[in-house]
Specification:
The chain is mainly α and 608 residues long. The chain has four domains: 189 residues, no CATH class; 102 residues; 109 residues, no CATH class; 92 residues. Helix 1 packs across helix 8, helix 4 packs antiparallel against helix 5 and helix 14 runs parallel beside helix 16. The protein is rod-shaped and about 170 Å long.
Length: 608
């Protein structure tokens, strides 16, 4: 016969922060399905290719719940290694003249890695969806067992109830995990009715007492282990082991008799509290460190916000700012954790600070990109000019233009990197082709010009001998010398000094022989102009014409000024020294004016 159950006789569930925390942790782990862990290899020493091969093997050959830790380790290792590779490729790209905004890097190994990771995520999602269904099915089984237990108590048969109770216990233990949100309430309800069963059981007292004794001994063992854990320095290990002990207490060991129930639970909960308090102190210190980390991270965010880009005018300036931001980012990520309550806020501030910088940077490089496209079109035009001139035989004009477009090319800034090498090759090939032809022409011309130099040197020697021998040199003879000199042609550029020697000899001949100065001036002028014509130096010719016109204007003004001055010499006779001086100056200027006009007339006759 079963006695009625009075609520006042039930053993209350002891509740404190330590026990509540353990219960919560056990509930969180209640959904965990046991599995065989896969060996964790030294992935840090794997190459990118080996990491991808290992990831593929894990996903294909193992249950998804068994490889979670391995996959996470591979992901972290792969990201670090690939990040280093990406950073090196970016640095190389920038060193070669590329722009940050143009940087792109594709690697097949990354595509393969992403594909395998996607397969893993699909399998994981399928597993957890299936697990959720299984957890709910297990919950229904346990709820039915509780109902069966209640019915067993309410409708007990002394001869069979204990056997039936054992069957319920075995079924309870063999049923798999249930949803963590239902775990504690379900267990407490079950445990309450188990204790009711033992408290009301009068039949088979020997079996009941034997159970109580066995359970008491097993729980004492757990108490001893819990008290030993309280002495451990490794607080995380102690807390994890304590969770296992509590789970065994709940799920593997039944109740003890009322006489020992509070005593054994008191010791077990006291040991639990010690571990809990030590863990609480540990995390309190850790939180203090987290607070320090908060201040450090906020300080770095302030530094990022203070980076001044207003003075950045070129790529070099921006690259310095980019390096500065990158250094601050690295410092930020090296700082440890912050309190969870502040984590999102700090991360938002960090992203806002870096986003502000990135917007400014991207705006600059957008303008740079536009400038690069403009530079691209400018260089294409120069290439077109170079291609047009590369076969030219108008050496003097073409050479000047080629030299100018080479100088213009150097002054044009960067172009998009993907076009840079191709454009430079086209331009260089066209220029090299022209200058190779020019040098071949110059090599052939140099031999001829050297022969001219030797002939002019010989003529110079003949003229010197005539002067030294006091031979009279007439105007016709002088013209003959000049014509012969000019007909010989050009000398090498580095030997132009012989022209100066020739002009000095002409001056000496004029000084030592009765030759008209005007005629000599024209002979020398014609010789100079003809040398420009031979060299096709049209710039010098144009400059000479401007010079002659200027001298004509200056001379006319001088004559007019002198003629005006005569008007200020009142009542002067022809013998007046002042008047005579002015008249002589006017005559000299008029002679010069005639010479300048003759020079201009000669220049006008030329066809160049």
């Amino acid at each position: 016969m079963l006695e009625s159950v009075e609520t006042k006789n039930e053993v209350p569930i002891v509740s404190n922060k330590a026990i509540d925390e353990i219960d919560t942790k056990i509930a969180e782990s209640s959904e965990t399905i046991e599995h065989v862990r896969v060996e964790m290899k030294d992935y840090d020493n794997f190459s990118l290719e080996d990491l991808v091969a290992e990831l593929s093997k894990l996903v294909k050959e193992n249950p998804v719940q068994s490889i979670h830790s391995n996959v996470n380790k591979i992901k972290n290792t792969f990201n670090v290694k690939f990040g280093t590779l990406l950073k090196n490729e970016k640095s190389k790209f920038i060193e070669e003249g590329g722009n940050v905004v143009d940087f792109q890097y594709d690697n097949p190994i990354k595509s393969t890695y992403n594909s395998i990771l996607y397969d893993y995520k699909v399998k994981k999602n399928e597993f957890y969806a299936k697990q959720e269904n299984q957890l709910n099915e297990n919950l229904q089984v346990k709820l039915e067992l509780i109902e069966n237990l209640k019915m067993l108590i309410d409708n007990a048969d002394g001869s069979t109830m204990y056997k039936r109770f054992r069957e319920i216990q075995d079924k309870w233990r063999s049923t798999g995990p249930i949803p963590k949100a239902k775990y504690n309430d379900t267990w407490r309800t079950y445990q309450h009715h188990v204790e009711r069963f033992y408290d009301l059981l009068h039949l088979n007292n020997d079996l009941r007492d034997l159970d109580f004794k066995h359970n008491y001994e097993e729980k004492l063992k757990l108490v001893v282990k819990a008290e030993a854990l309280a002495e451990l320095d490794d607080i995380n290990l102690a807390f994890n082991e304590l969770q296992i002990l509590h789970k065994m207490w709940k799920e593997d060991i039944g109740p003890v008799d009322r006489a020992h129930r509070e005593e054994v639970w008191g010791r077990f909960s006291a040991a639990t509290k010690i571990v809990h308090d030590k863990r609480h102190d540990f995390f309190k210190n850790l939180r203090s460190k987290f607070d320090e980390n908060t201040e450090k991270k906020l300080s770095i965010i302030s530094e990022i916000e203070a980076v001044d880009t207003s003075g950045n005018k070129n790529r070099s300036d921006w690259q310095k700012s980019i390096n500065e931001i990158e250094e601050l980012r690295n410092k930020f990520f090296k700082i440890g954790q912050v309190p969870r309550a502040k984590s999102n806020d700090i991360w938002a501030k960090f992203k806002a600070a870096t986003r502000k910088f990135n917007i400014e940077k991207n705006n600059f490089f957008k303008d740079v990109k536009k400038e690069h496209l403009e530079n691209l079109n400018k260089k294409k035009l120069l290439i077109e000019k170079a291609l047009e001139l590369k076969d030219s035989e108008d050496w003097d004009v073409a050479t000047e233009v080629m030299k100018k477009i080479q100088a213009d090319w150097k002054n044009i800034g960067h172009v998009p990197r993907k076009y840079s090498d191709k454009l430079w090759k086209e331009f260089k090939d066209a220029c090299n082709y022209y200058f190779d032809r020019l040098h071949s022409e110059q090599d052939a011309g140099s031999k001829e010009e050297l022969e001219v130099f030797n002939k002019k040197k010989e003529l110079l020697k003949q003229i010197k001998e005539s002067i030294e021998n006091k031979v009279e040199i007439t105007l016709d003879k002088l013209k003959e010398y000049v014509n012969s000199w000019r007909k010989l042609g050009r000398v090498p550029f580095e030997m132009k000094h012989i022209e100066i020697k020739f002009n000095k000899l002409i001056d000496k001949i004029v000084a030592e022989n009765p030759i008209d100065v005007k005629e000599v001036e024209m002979i020398k002028f014609e010789n100079l102009i003809n040398s420009y014509l031979e060299q096709k130096n049209y710039k010098k010719l144009n400059g000479e014409q401007l010079f002659v016109r200027k001298k004509i204007d200056e001379t006319i003004r001088e004559i007019q000024q002198l003629e005006n001055n005569i008007g200020f010499i009142s009542n002067a006779t022809k013998d007046n020294p002042l008047l005579k001086n002015v008249m002589e100056n006017i005559r000299a200027y008029k002679e010069k004016l005639e010479i300048w006009k003759s020079k201009l007339a000669y220049l006008k006759k030329l066809d160049y």
